[in-house]
Amino acid sequence: MASLSGRALPALRAWVAAEPDYGVARALLVLATSDGLDDAELRAELVRAHRDARVGGERAVSLVHGVFLFTHRQYVMAADHLAGHLASWPGDEAAALMVDAFAASGSRAYRERGNALVERQYSLAGPGSWVWAGRLAWTRTEQGRVGEAYDLAVRALELNPRSGLAVHARAHAEHEMGAGPRSVAFIDEWLSADPQAVQFRHLNWHATLQSLAAGDFACARRRADRVLDRADVGMRAATNWRLLLAGQVPARRTEVEHVRELLAAPGGMAEVFHTFNLALALAVEAATDDLEALAERAACDERSEFVRVLAPVVRALAHLTAGRPQAAVDLLARLEQEIEVLGGVRVEREIVQDTLARALVDAGDPHRAAELLYHRTHSRVHHVYEDLLLGAPPAQTRILEEIPHA
Questions:
Q1: pLDDT of residue 406
Q2: Separation CA 79–CA 111 (nearest Å)
Q3: Are 203 and 190 in contact (CB under 8 A)?
Q4: How many beta carbons lie within 10 A of that of residue 91, not counting itself?
Q5: Cα–Cα dist 111/34, whole Å
Q6: Reduced to 3 states, what is the DSSP secondary structure of residue 287?
Q7: 26-57: b (≥16 Cβ within 10 Å) or e
Q8: Helix axes 288-299, 272-284, angle to 10 degrees
Q9: Per mean pLDDT, which range of 26-40, 215-229, 281-295 is the poorest?
Q10: In angstroms, rounded to a whole number, what is the distance separating the alpha carbons of residues 290 and 263?
Q11: What DSSP state is assigned to residue 405?
């Protein structure tokens, strides 16, 4: 979980070992480790936590129930429950760990409701709460209020230098600033003090993006190759697709067969953002046929976000890998107001804008591409990456055309 530093998980385990009948401690450990538990283990741990929490009173029981809903991905119900919980126990810092339920619900109304709730909780808890300062910093990054996000993240880190959520929020703010080497140095320094941090690979990915921004492509590839492993398909694909769009040699790639296996596995298309990341992995390999097949599957899905947004985005990737940039432009240009539906966060969705900019240039419309990226090239300190996206096609190494189709 982004809210935890690498030192928090051992502390949680020690807490549960010391007080095995303390329901809240057990529930928080489950919250931190739920991705590694099967359904039976998850249920058994939470049933025990709920039973033990009754001794601790209503707040404890309410927290455990929130963990149950959140870990079972019942995000709308979890969000409703958290709103009620925080109305009863304002500023409860343990509850802040589950506020992502509002954004994960997939509803813009719930996301805005969650943002308002975070603002209120920070106001109630006061500036001395590093937890709510970090949480509000994260909220501000997603709202595009970069200066406020950065200041709040710095404030939270002054209060608790090991706040994982605050360092993550700062990384997002610095991405919007194009901080480049300054951000890389800060991330490396933070991780060197906590090499077991749960965010180790993800923060290294942020450092990779800052290396891209500054034009240090060798560093970006080296970091991706040394840190991102086979399971990090999304981060590897997002790194390599950016490198390819900028005409650069990619880092180690993901085998097409591995992506096919992930798509075919149970839950392979359970979430729209996960599926989008797998599509990026196929695009890196110029697997046009696979992309077209995936676009067709998405277009026939019962979920509106798959039909309205994912299908055209995946089809646009297929067009681009097949050398049909204008067809990609026609699909992506009409989706600008709906890209949020893909899920993920701003920095992750930005790659769709990158793809459109590259397609516009390759289709012979560099002025429109420049307008699309104007804010980024004029507000970011380092924007070598954006400059390359806007470069004329003859100046590119055309790696997309050189990668053989799977």
A1: 41
A2: 10
A3: yes
A4: 17
A5: 23
A6: coil
A7: bbbbbbbbbeeeeeeebeebbebbbebbeebe
A8: 160
A9: 26-40
A10: 11
A11: P
The 10s digit of each residue's pLDDT in 372-393 is 999 999 999 999 999 999 986 6
For the record, the structure tokens of 373 come out as 């990226």
- From the CA atom positions of the chain, what is the Rg in Å? 22
Give residue 394's pLDDT.
45
The residues near 382 (Cβ < 8 Å, ≥ 6 apart) are 178, 179, 180, 181, 210, 213, 214, 215
Which amino acid belongs to residue 362? D
CB atoms near residue 259 (< 10 Å): 25
Write the single-letter amino acid at 209. L
Q: Cα–Cα distance between 244 and 400 in angstroms, integer?
A: 7
**Closest listed residue to residue 136, CA positions, set 124, 249, 148, 4:** 148
pLDDT in tens, 291-338: 999 999 999 999 999 999 999 999 999 999 999 999 999 999 999 889
Structure-block tokens of residue 112 = 């805005």
C-beta separation of 131 from 94 below 8 A: no
Distance separating alpha carbons of residues 101 and 295, to the nearest angstrom: 28
Percent of the chain with pLDDT over 70: 95
Residues ≥6 apart with Cβ < 8 Å to 16: 22, 25, 26, 29
The answer to whether residues 209 and 175 touch, using CB atoms and an 8 Å cutoff, is yes
Instruction: Find the DSSP H helices in 246-334.
Output: 256-264, 272-284, 288-299, 304-305, 311-321, 325-332
